[in-house]
Give the backbone structure.
Amino acid sequence: MSKVVVFDHPLIQHKLSIMRSKDTGTKEFRELLNEIAMLMVYEVTRDLPTEEVEIETPICVCKAKQLAGKKLGIVPILRAGLGMVDAVTKLIPAARVGHIGLYRDPETHEPHEYYCKLPDDAENRELLVLDPMLATGGSASDAITLIKARGCNHIRLVNLIAAPEGVAKVQQDHPDVDIYIAAMDDHLNEHAYIVPGLGDAGDRLFGTK
Ligand code: PRP
Ligand code: URA
């Protein structure tokens, strides 16, 4: 069974509370999503392997550490996952960016794929799947299935807010994928929105409603 890591850091929780408020506008929502994504990825990547290298400082030659192991990639799920991309590429500039387009049918709540473009060497990379919301888990699970079909088996899922239903689905469909979240909310409502959640992340991020 995969692990679920909840980031209860006070800075993350404070920023997330502002994002949840219905009075927070698009500009602030976008900035906060960016900031939280950066704080989260700092922790998500804590166990990346490093290797010793020799560096010559202006003073002397010394041993120092650099990242080793698999290269990284990130895969935002469109649209709302886009709001987490800049933060990650700022911290990890060498990361390649794939995109998966999925939208939820408003009646059935089932995800529909409309776009998939992954890095050529995705199978050789450690991939972080980014999406602020994990509701039924259908979108995240389908996105991970698409990525695995490309031969990639080193995947982590990074969400802001999850519902227990979504976590259970991803754990059942992909027991090898660890899930990193900032909050585990209570339940889904009759429209499969997370309660209390923050509403429609894509609409709030892009100001489309
Ligand atoms: C939202 C969200 C997730 C998905 C989560 O996207 O960003 O991708 O719903 O729901 P699920 O866990 O039940 O699949 P949406 O389909 O609204 O598309 P959008 O980002 O383009 O608005
Ligand atoms: N998608 C969202 O943007 N919010 C939810 O609460 C559920 C799905």
